Structure formats: C-alpha cells, structure tokens
Amino acid sequence: MDLASLTVVLRTALSPSPEERKVAEESLNQFQHTPQHLVRLLLIIVDGTCDMGVRQVASIHFKNFVAKYWSPHGPGEPHKVSESDKNMVRENILGFIVQVPPLLRFKSDEERTPLYLIIEETFPLLLNVFSKLVQVVNPTIEVADLIKLICKIFWSSIYLEIPRQLFDPSVFGSWMILFLNILERPVPLEGQLTDPEVRKSWGWFGDVKLQRPESKAFAQMFQKNYAGRILGCYLQMLNAVRIGEYLPDRVINLLLQYLGSRVGTSTKEKHSVEMIKNSNLFRIPKNSMYQLLQPQLDIVLFEIVFPLMCFNDDDQKLWSEDPHEYVRKGYDIIEDLYSPRTAAMDFVSELMRKRGKANFQKFIQFIVDVFRRYDEAVEFKPFRQKDGALLAIGTLCDKLKKTEPYKSELECLLMQHVLPEFTSPIGHLRAKAAWVAGQYANINFSDQNIFRRVFHCVIAGFKDPELPVRVDSVFALRAFVEACVGGGKPSSEQSLEEVWQGARLPERNTDLNEIRSILPQLLDEFFKLMNEVENEDLVLTLETIVDRFGEEMAPYAFGLCQNLASAFWRCLNSSESDDDADDSGALAAVGCLRAISTILESVNRLPHLFVQIEPTVLPILQKMLTTDGQDVFEEVLDIVLYLTFYSPTISLEMWSLWPLIMDALSDWAIDFFDSKSLVSHQVTYEPCSLKQSYAYILVPLDKFISRGTSHFLTCKDPDYQQSLWKTLSSIMSDPNIDDADIEPVPKLIEVVFQNCKGQVDHWVEPYLRITIERLRRAERPYLKCLLIAVIADAFYYNPALTLGLLHKLGVAVEVFNLWFQMLQEVKKSGLRANFRREHDKKVCCLGLTSVLGLPADQLPGEAFERVFKATLDLLVSYKDQIAAVQECNPARFQNLTRSLDFHYQALASGVAQHAEQRKVEIEKEKLEKASSE
C-alpha cells in the first residue's frame, strides 16, 4: 500500500459510518505487516499538509503497532517487523519528533516563558498603578474597577503555580501590603446596597480555584509576615455580620471556610476560594493560627456563627412566598457552596471535631441556655433562636451520639426540646423538629415509647399544611424505617392508623407492622408530594420503604411503577425544557429509575407482576437506551435486566430494545458491556445479587438469547443473529480495545453455542475465526481462558463440524497444544493457573468429552489419549473444587442439593462421597504441611 492509499484508508477510519470504519480497519490489519508500513505512518504523522485527524489516527496506529509487534512476545513467535524497517525508524524517529505539531507535545517549562516575560515586564508597572489607586481619596467606581482588574490579573498569574518573580520577599510583600490595604478598608456607601434584590446581582465577589504551591520557604515567609494579618482582616470583615451590616453571602461563606480550615481540615470538599485565601494552601501550622483565633473565638462562635444558623427574615419571606423554592434551596448542594448557614454548620462541626475539648461543653451549654430561655418565655418566645439551636443539635449528632454524658441524655433531649415543636404554631420549628428527629432515629432508645411518639409525630407531619414540613417529615421517615425492627404484633389496642386519623398518640413498641397498617395512605401522600416537589431524597425514602417491605409491596407495585414513571417523565421534561435550571429534576429522574429497579427486585418472585409493569416502563427504556439516556444508562439497564430475567417470557415489545442496545454498544456504550463483579452467565444468578452486580449489557443480551431462543433464531426483520455478529466481530477485531473490554464477547458467543445447538451451523466458522484471531494476540490470561472456552463450546455444539473447521483453518494442532498447555500450567503455589472457576472447568469438560465421542478416523489414537487424560485431570480438579466448597461452606452445598430433583441429587451424592474422602485428605495435607514448617 503506497503513501496516498494509506492516507485514504486512515481518513476512512474517521468516517461516521461503522461499515466504512470497519473496512478501513480491516485494510490496516491486512497491510500492516507489509515492508515500510511503519515508515509510511511516520511520514503521514509529520506531514504538515495532511489533515490533523488523519495524522492523529496514524500516530495511534503507529503506537499500537509498535507496542504489539516490534518484538516477539513469546519463544518461537515470528518477527513481524523487518530489521530494515526497524533501522529506518531508529534513524529517523528523533528527526520526526522535532516536526510533531506543538499542540501534540507536552509544554515544558521553557514553553511557559512568555508568561514569565509578561509578569516580569508588566507586574512592576501594575504594582505602581495599584499603589497609586489605593491612595486615591474617595475613589470613583472606575478606580474600584481598575483595582478589581489588577486583583484578577494577579490571581490569574498564580492560578496554577506561583511565578518565580513573586518568590522575592520584597516583591511579594509589596503586593500583599496593598491587598491588606483593600481588605482593611470599610465597604464604601456605594457598596452598601439596601435593596436585597440588587444585592443578589452585585457581582464583585467571584469564584476562584484552589492552589497548592510546594515551596516551604515561601510558605514560612507567608505564615510569618501575612497569615496573622489576613486572619485579622477576615475577622474584622465578619464583624459586619455581628453589627448588622451587609456582607454578601458568598463572602461570608468563604470567610467561614477559611476560619474552619484554621482549626482543622474541612469536613466537606473545599470549594473555590478568593485569591487572598490562597494562604490556606501554604502549609501554615494550624496550631499557631488557632492560637491567633482563640481570643476572639467566643465572639465568632456565639455572636456571628450561631446567628447565621438561625432562621432569618430572608428564610421567612421565601417560606411564605415560595415554599417550593425554600425546599429546593434547602436541599441543593450547589446552594451550599454559597450559603452562610452551611458554612456556619461546617465551622461548628469542624471546631467541635478538632478542638472539642476546649469548646464542646461551652457550646452545648450555650444551646441549653437557648432552650431554657425559650421554655421560660411566656409571651414572646425566641422562635428563631430555637430553630438555630435545633440545627446545631442536629449538626453535632455524630459527636453527641458518642460522647458522654450527652449520649445518655439524648432521649431526654428529644422529649423536652424536640417533641413539643411538632405541634408548634411556627411552621419552620415543626420542620426542624422532623429533621432533628431523623438525625437521632438510630440511637439505642432505652424507652421505646419515646421512639414511638417521635416516629408518630413524623408520620403525622405528612399531613402538615406547610410544604417544607411535609418534605422534612418524608426525609425523616427514611431514618425511622431503617431503625424499625421487623415483625411482631402490635401490643396496644390503638393502631398507627388511628394516629393517622388524628387519635391520641399511643405509647408502645414500634415495628414495621405499624407502617403496614397505613402503607396505602403513606404511598398516596408520597406521590402527592412528588407531584409538587422534584427531589431525589423523596425517591430515596420510597426506595427504603420498598426495600424493607420486599414482597409485601406486591399489591402496590404496579401503581408505584405507574406513579414513578409519571414522575420520571415530569422531571425529565422540566430538566430538558429549562437548560439553566438546577439539577434537582435530573437527579430526581435518576432516583425514579432506581426506585423502579428496587420495586422489581422486591417482587422478583412474582413474575406475573412483570407482565403488568412492562408496558409502563417500556417507553422509558426505549427513549433512554439511546444517546438521550447516556447519563442514566446504568439505571436503565438494571430495569432491562429485571424484565428479561424475571418476566414469564420475553415479549415482542421487549425485543424492540435489542436494536437500541446493539446500536449503543457499537457506538458509545462499550464501557457498559460487562461488570467485572458479575459471575459468568452460566453460573446460577442469585436474585438478591442482581442489583448489586450491575450486570450492564451482557446479562440482558444473554437473557434475550437464552430465554427467547426461538425468536432470536427465526426473526429476520430485524435479523438478531446478524446484528449480534456485526457487533461482536467489530469489537473482537478492534486492536484498540483492551483485553478486559473484550471479555464479554466470548461469553455471548458461548450463549449462542450452548442455547442454539444444531441451529446455527453457519455461524460456527465465523465465530471460530474471530476467536482464534483474538486468541493469537490476547495477553490477559483470563481472556485466553474465555476464548478457549468458546472453542470448547463449539465442540459441545458440534464436535465433528468444529474439528473439521479447525483443520480447514489450519489451526487444529495449534489450538489443542495451547489448550493442553494452559490446562497444565500451575502457579508457584501449586494452584491451577488457568480455568480456575467451576464454570471454566465444566465448559472444558463438555468440550473435551464431546471430542472423545468422535469416530476413530477423526480422532487418532495419540490425540484420543491426550484428550482423555486432560478430561480426567479436569474432572478430578472439578471434584476437588466442589470438595473445597463443601469444606468451607457445607450449608451452602446442602441447600443447593436439596433444591435439585432426584436425578441430580443422586449425582450430587456421588460428588459428596468423593468430597468426604477429599475432606480427610485435605486435613491430612494440612497437618503434614504444618509439621514440615
């Protein structure tokens, strides 16, 4: 192939058409071993007139070819690259690298020289301008804009690393003095905007990113000269909160993040911080900074941080005017990045975790005083302070649950200070009570009556007139359901159903039976709420209930799936219709899909329900198995798995998903082909493990073929056999796909041979051909085992046909030699190196015993003897493995044999007798090994 032809082939490899790409790849594979192929690739790579995409394809092909064929990988393997080609590459490679486009090369430190030159030339001028600007008396907005621009330029220069020019203490010090000057200034009157709506759009405070320079000397200099002053500036800025002046939420959030980092590592992932906050990155000793903070810590904690945790005017306005937005903001992780309240909670949590010895008791005493003042107040109760105190108690739940004497007083806390607020006339206190109750639902209650009373209050919150209260009650319910014990009969005459209807709260132990009595009403309230609010946590609570009740959800399964499907479409439509909207709708849509999977899991022993549910979820599957569903592909495949696995039959409507799955697999979904945690498709699937295994595409395709064999074989429009071959052969022959990603292909070929015996003769040769081709270049031992298993399955399918095809391809001796070699390989430990699973041994036994059944004229005596010995070794090894299973887990083995019919029980009994013999031998071997050591 000349240079021009090779260029055309490489360009075709970029075609959007899979057929054209496949033809190009086959041409490359066909001509890649011709003389001077590598040299031609190099010429294309460095050809500046050639299309960049073609050059990139050439470079990838060159890299892969050199990695695979430059030197033989095993003894006796022929050389694929001639010495003349190797010499020509060696002589020219350095010259070619020089010509590689700069965009394709790593930019070394020298490549960054322009940045250093810019800093060297401009920063002295900028510093001079900056110095003059900060001296302007009564600066105009134009001056302020210039100062802001200079600050942004400085920040941009240290975005990835600190330029060496700034390591000069005098230069850096000049900049820091000016920054401190800016920080210490009061906000001018023009910045004290009184209109809250205008404040929201005030764009002077921007997001920036974390820096981590490594210079120890620079960090020490920064710590000594500037860190303390910056801390003082930040405390002064926070004082604005204390005296009621305006400070933007984002600034408060960043300042508290900084203070939290001075007492210990943040409990949450650190987010963007302001340029001057980069001092957090210089490995400043936290003890010294904490000592600087300590004299003012009480003021910060009790007069700044705690008030930020309290319900405020903005909260009240949002609660009253837009409760849906109040709920959204309260559970939006993006809002947390800007929220002063979230930063205050983090600060308290981090302070008590890192410096609890000095601060925990006094903070709890402060909270107790808030509770006392609230209880003592007759006319004007401090409702908002009580809200903040409850938030603090909930924030510190983990520490309070572990620390005495507080740990022993938690039930009293709930009774005295939480339970009464469920009937408060103040809505936000009812909501906060539900939230706090959920935080403590899992403590060990010495008095179960307290648990029951709080639990019933949470249930009653489902009917609260205020939306945020209902939402917080649903979220709290999840914690209580997880904490409930199952079974048992109610011990009181009054049921939870009566509580639901408004009767007096009972005092008796609570278990899941109490939820059972009101389950239909609970589910109705769930879906009413889901119609109002798009929130993932709502669906998570529903998932928890479904998971705990299992098959008891059967009467509600169909209705649940209908409601979840409706909620999914609603969330999806709202997410698609507003590109600027938050992600709550998308997250809720994902949650709906997970909840549907949980329902299907819970009723997997009731296949008739799957027939009812399928039409409801099928439209979702048909849409989301396309590129529209890439973000939820895993969740969608889980549902497909359940429907193909547990439905009485695979319907024609379900078969409409096959082309969608194959298109996705061919185009973009190769990463979803298999899960490494999934056992082989021929091993019995444990129903309870399906959801955890994330079977991806492999198992649904397996089930389509094994459970819908007749339709797979007879349907020609679409032609399922052809589409499977097209996809599998494309993946198997692609040199750019790793061995690990190839592994599902031989597993699916096995499914075809094992389930379509005698009906796919015309596919045996093509599948054997691509199997042997991949086997020759496979490197992973496990993939080699799977490919040999395909050959074994082919013998099981039709031994005479398979042996004839191996002779026709001229690989019969090669295949059997490799097979026997792999069977005999052992590790240093003495364990078998290949075919280690029970399934692998069984497949090899099936294949070899099928070979033994061939007539003598097809299997000569010598070959017969080798196959016979290998079969015996495998059978013994398989029995030993069964014996080991019984040895380590006899209960599992016994349970399995009890579930078999009489014929298989008799067979298993023979294995069990052998296992008993081996058990004695194993014990003897262990004793001998121990004595020799």
Automatic annotation (TrEMBL):
Protein name, entry field: Importin N-terminal domain-containing protein
Residues in Importin N-terminal domain copies: 24-99
Family matches, as InterPro entries: ARM-like (IPR011989), ARM-type_fold (IPR016024), Importin-beta_N (IPR001494)
First-listed, main subcellular location of the protein, grouped into a coarse class: cytoplasm
Keywords: Cytoplasm, Nucleus, Protein transport, Transport
Annotated localization: Cytoplasm; Nucleus
Molecular function as annotated in GO: small GTPase binding
Superkingdom field: Eukaryota
One Gene Ontology term, aspect cellular component: nuclear envelope
Any one Gene Ontology BP term: protein import into nucleus
Cytoplasm keyword on record: yes
